[in-house]
Protein 1
Amino acid sequence: MEGSIVQMGAYIGAGLACMGMGGAAVGVGNVAGNFLSGALRNPSAAAGQTATLFIGIAFAEALGIFSFLVALLLMFAV
Amino acid sequence: MAAEEHGEGLAFHPMDQFIVSPLFGDGEVGVFTITNATLWMALSVLAIALLFIVGTRGRAIVPTRIQSIAELAYGFIHKMVEDVAGKEALSFFPYIFTVFLFIVFSNFLGLLPMAFTPTSHIAVTAILAIGVFLTVTIVGFVKNGAGFLGLFWVSSAPLALRPVLALIEVISYFVRPVSHSIRLAGNMMAGHAVIKVFAAFAPLILISGIGVAVTPLSIVAITAMYGLEILVAFIQAYVFTILTCVYLKDALHPSH
Amino acid sequence: MEETVLEHGAEQAAEHGAAAAHGAEAASGGMPQLDFATFPNQIFWLVVSLVVLYFILSRVALPRIGSVLAERTGTITNDIAAAETFKQQAAEAEAAYHKALDDARAAAAKVVEESRAEIQKELDVAIAKADAEIAARTAESEARIAEIRESAAEAVSKVAKDTTQEILTAFGVQADAAAVQSAVDQRLNGGAA
């Protein structure tokens, strides 16, 4: 019975951890959207900043992946 | 435990695709055992060798299709290293290119059905990231001596803030390999697991009436996720490589 | 109801136990990524792969591609230089062609001019000759006309004198021939005047 409660807690925690992915989605959208608006203002400078765009997206996305990882750990490892 | 069998018979095993098991026999996984991980790493190496040795065999001035793929990859990474990390980083180009090719081929071969993705394992990406971390740290100290510590001493900040910032910089420096490796492994694992979860819903049509709606939906979802995964497979290799270049730039020019 | 729940719980517990036992064996229950038993194996083969890959790339592939790219750049540069030379040559040839064309045009114009001058000269000579001939003939004709007129006038005055003489004779006037003549001459001249 005690194990079931721990399991329940783990599952609830996993679900809660998945909310972090929404944050990552907001972040990635922010990065891409701001890049696009900047690129439309000054298209000639946009090509040189693609690398920065991807780095920014990677950093934003990594945090979402971390929350996904926490969810996975709660689901399978705890 | 997701390994639980539900009454309806749907089997959720999203993580089973990542199990490392011996290729021959059924024994323990020792250090030298040939496992499925070994097989797919070897396939990556083989594919790269085919592309870069057999493909460029002609040394043609006007390249064949395969040769131009090899040249495109070469030019892509060469330019990235030169643009991001500077000209003197070009001596690390073979190393960075090796890492990039290994990751990109592992990612793409891992997208084949029934395949195993070496880069979805923390063990693999951690070694790659620790390799980059050690390289960057050693190069930084060899090239700049103690001046490499200037990376942590933000001289443009007010003096009172500098110790705090130095602490933060040190922490972020040591977190680098963690985020570097978990980003890659997490992305690969997440995509494959999500595809597997959707795939588990697909046979519902054989079991229950609601499957008429669920099965096509899950097949569409698998297709969409697969397309996204193709993008992610490349972007994560790109990001891993470009972050390596960024870290290398820090090692070569530590001044903030 | 309670019985079934209990039964289910027991079943689950049994299953859980089995899974745990299985997990201890091959970790199929937990995350395979955290099955530390497989780490040495993966790390070993990863390092082997990377070393093999590094040697394949740095010993064979990269120098080859680098040389091919350098060769291509060289070829392209040479070709562009050659194209530049050819372009210059073409421009020179064009200039020479235009010059030749202009020369030919000038020569033709000169020839035309010369022949025109020659023809003009010949024409002038011919015209002059013709003019002279015409003038000579005109003069001749005029001389003859004058002669004819002279003789006619002479004849007229002679006829007039003779007629006057005869008329005078007929009237019975013995007129002096000389006087008649001068009178007729005077009259003719006055009439003419």
Protein 2
Amino acid sequence: MTMSAVEDKMHVEENAMNPNWAVIKKIETETVDTSTLWLEFEDEEVRKDYKYSAGQFNMLYLPIYGESAISISSDPDQEGLIGHTIRFVGNVTRAVSRLNVGDRISVRGPFGTNWPVEESKGKDVIIFAGGIGLAPLRPAIYQIINNRKDYGKVTIVYGARCPSDLLYTGEYEEWRSHDIELMVTVDHADDTWDGLVGVVPMYFYRLRPNPENTVLWSCGPEIMMHFVLYEGLARKIPDNQIYLSYERNMKCGVGVCGHCQHGAYYICKDGPIFTYEQLEPYFNVEDL
Amino acid sequence: MTDYQLSINTTVAISKPELNKLLDVLSGAGYKTIGPVAKNNSLVYEQIEDISDLPYGYETDQKAGRYRLYQNGGSEYFQATPGASTWKKYLTPPRTKLFGLVNVDNKWKEVPVSEIHPKYAFIGVRPCEIAAIKIQDTVLIREDYVDTLYKKIRDELIIIAVNCLHPADTCFCTSVGGSPEAEDGYDLRLTELDDLFLVNIGSQKGIDMVAQLEYAAANSHSLQIENEMMSEAKEKIKDVLKDYKQLPELLMNNLTHSAWEDVAAKCLSCGSCTSVCPTCFCWDVQDVTNLHGTETQRDKVWDSCFNPTFTAHAGGGCSRPTTTSRLRQRITHKFASWVEQHGGEGCVGCGRCIVWCPAKIDIREELNILQEAFK
Amino acid sequence: MDIDRKLIDRLRAVPWFQEISLEHFEAIAQFTRMLDLAKDEILFREGDSEDYIYVVLKGRVAIEVNSPDRGKLRIFTAEALDVVGWSAVTPVVRQRTATTRAVVDSTLLSIDAAKLQQLCDDNCDLGYLIMSRVSSVIAGRLMGARMQLLDFYGKQDCEE
């Protein structure tokens, strides 16, 4: 006569987890393991209502393979296709790498906090990006360019492991033409590379920031961001003007599945972009 | 039946067999009645149809890493302390289907699935378990997020609470702000005396239910006995956990202290504590797929912060590779970060994590060791 | 000897030399000269003796190590105001352990290392200043080398 709920017919839940289909309209190959997928929502209402901010991410879901958090890399001020630059390293993203133009993928989002693009008007902006970390910063770079006169000095230091790993190489000249100082460096190079060799955080010593009027934004491997942070702090940039984009195992995107907790934060909801002031209590706590 | 005016907070008395009538009233109204059942040497929450399904005459013996259920020849239905089973398996089932998909001509189509949301009536909910449900409410029904399934089940839920007259050695509700006496959050609250149940009414639904029973006004003698028994129960709970209000600051300010290694030394990282915990809510999402890859369904399943995959990264590795880091996550979440996230602790002092820990880890002792070390 | 004022101005513009007195600049200028390198021209080669320490004024020079099986590996690029060849002023003088090549047309200051060391020996205050600056350059390079070793980009960000 007894019957447990586990044996009951399974419940169906209608909520934020449901799929939201989009079609791949364009694929740009960036590097040997990274491409940008340009998506359009199938549903016209969704397409119209979808708004996002620079630095936010979506959960891309491919049936059978699962879901993966991917930051949005297109211009939030532009209507139309939504860009996702994806590095193919996990089960889900490797399956995504096999998709073609015309294929469908589900998109949930946008989730998370954004770069303080509005709040930083009137200030000098220093951006340190490493590897795929340039992807979530590109929307912010576009927005700065859209309103370039509203910002002071804008400097981008971008690095990757080797020249062939650099993203968006076709856009550098355009960025530079908007009075943006862009330094591009690689960790490893042979003699065909005429640019800078050296790790990203090291180039801080070439900058002479006016700390009170500078915001520092960084995204890249966590160790890289830590060294960028140390350089920023050494130059007296205030804790609440340093923004880092963190990443953990995001699953639900709405701070309820528990996976991406970092201290009291849910990275998916309270982050991914935090000020150092917010992160400081948990900073350098191993395996938090 | 009397002309007695029933209202919220009225206490009446019913005979013990009258509980059967209550079960009938509930099932007659379409509720699935769930209560404690003695099964496989433990107490589990399952569907009950008759009071003979309840663990009549059973009591339990429990301490760290030990739970024994046995007949004591007594005459109480609710003497035995609950086992590993929690109500959360009905409120947030271990596996929930989010949606199904079928591949038709290379296009994934959503499969409509008929919705089944049983209306539940929980019989014999302990005060600490009510506290746990209230905590889950704050996590799953928020301004910025609502777990729709949880809310539907919760909105229809009827809670028949039972005051805790025989707290176990592993109980510590009073250490975390609770009490063996349920104060609110129920439709009806039972106190089991020798030959009757005192029934306190907690809601309009409760009034409607009692109105259909044979009841009498609770006499002062019974109420006095109830009072005495509650006082005894409160005294029986060892208030061993010190200063829990200081824990958030203390724990978060000492995340790198070596004492974490000491408390984690015994931990097996098995996740028993999280599965039996009535407030743990973490879940994973999985695709369950047929062999041809033409059909799949997205399932929400319970997860545990002790699982190695919980913090897994795509390129390999995970954020919390050690047992110490996982135990620290569980303890700091329950007693510190939960307060910041949800406005209160994530622990109700039910003691399940102590009883069901195969390594006999007692969270109260661990917290005291940490407090001592961090001073 | 005539003092090359232009050279002194160049020296004073190098942040690395800040706080040095005019008198000492004049002394340093005695054994400093400007050097123009055309693109791809070699400044020094692995195995050369360590005669000079350089400050890049304009352009970009790459420090390379040749590996027989991997070709020329660029381990650092020096740009304006970066120091190259600092090991020439450390007490143990070896030989050059890397090759330095101009990546674009470049201008450098070359300072006679032995004479600079002698000047530092004779003037302890100046010596302290110069050696603190050299140690700062070394610390920066070491930090950079460490980070290169960490190989940040080895592991990808989180995903299912």
